[in-house]
Amino acid sequence: MTKTACPRPHVLAPIGFGITLALCVSQNASAEPPIQSPQDAACRNEARAKVFTAPDPQGLGLHALGRQIHAACMQRSQGRRATRRKSR
């Protein structure tokens, strides 16, 4: 019989999976700051919906492109709010 480096792989596999899952969850939990307003929530949803279909000629990547979409949406929504207040 030959000795293996890991005598009980069936025991260690779930532990490794659990550690990997915990790291992924903790990274995703801190990836976004808390939602600040209804407009922020709506713009986050818009960015999530458009990030994979929007053109990226500058090669920014998905995260930066999503931030640009979110920022543009927030500016549009604040422009609408200011216009509404002036018209009353």
TrEMBL record:
<keyword id="KW-0732">Signal</keyword>
<feature type="signal peptide">
    <location>
        <begin position="1"/>
        <end position="31"/>
    </location>
</feature>
<protein>
    <recommendedName>
        <fullName>Secreted protein</fullName>
    </recommendedName>
</protein>
